[in-house]
Amino acid sequence: MTHSDRITAGINLIPGRFKHRLKNYDIIHFHGGDLTLPLFSYTVKKPKIFHSHGLSLDFYKRYFLSRLILKNIANLYIAVSKDTQRKFIDLGIPKNKIRLLPNGVDTKTFRPSKKKIDNLLLFVGRITYAKGLHILLESLRYLKNKIHLVVIGPPEWDFEYFREILKRIENENRKGIHKITYLSEQEPISIVKWYQKASIFVLPSLIEAFAIVNLEALACETPVIATNTGGIPEVIQQGKNGILVPPNNPIKLAEAIQYLLDNKDVRAKLGQEGRKIVEENYSSSLIANKLRRIYEEMLM
């Protein structure tokens, strides 16, 4: 059943008995933006963490009840980026109740291979308007090189947008200039292989809290071209491990792609530096240790 967040304040119903199970745990750790479980567990006297992987500032500012619930459902709030941290503070959550914990990747699974395929571009993400795949497809007309673009990701609720994307892919392939392959959703082991083979990873998001796919690409020594929005610039450093472009700008995106296509040595340098940054700051073991310390803090 679909529902409007405006009517439900982001709350769905859950079975009444479920709340009693929460008493068996030492810490209750909520993930995501849904307020259902946090609200229904309000009376459970356990330390609670609200872990945001993407926060709609407009939504919470528009709806007072949702904002009130958000501000009172947890003892501690985890933000995946400084951008999300700023949004928490803007909504009235004290800074001393917020911990910064970025996403991490398994650097043993996401690792480089020996062979990159020239002119192979990769997009990984949900097929939704906010991810900006239509901007990437639009940018192809401005490229001098013939490229092969591989698109991996499932459609979301906006099937009209998904159908439009499939139509654009079909039209582009019919032109015979560029080749576009849509693989839908893939198993992780298959995605890793595409990260390893790609010359360039492109994420043209219009909005983005953090984008773990950028970390996955960098861990495979694949340079990233992404938009300068949300938490992305906290990972992608201009000219060091990737290139940042303005959102919703296919011409600037094409210029960045063409530059990396023309400069194989730059691609290699950005990819190597990207792997180093991930190993030093975003490995899953490092992030897990930081989370463990947060748990210990909660139980003191």
Automatic annotation (TrEMBL):
Domain Glycosyl transferase family: 110-276
Residues annotated as domain Glycosyltransferase subfamily 4-like N-terminal: 17-108
Origin: domain of life: Bacteria
Pfam families: Glyco_transf_4 (PF13439), Glycos_transf_1 (PF00534)
Claim: Transmembrane is one of the keywords in the record: no
Keyword Transferase: yes
GO molecular function, one term: glycosyltransferase activity
UniProt entry keywords in alphabetical sequence: Transferase
InterPro entries: Glyco_trans_1, Glyco_trans_4-like_N, Glycosyltransferase_grp1
Protein name as catalogued: Glycosyltransferase family 1 protein
Protein's organism: candidate division CPR3 bacterium
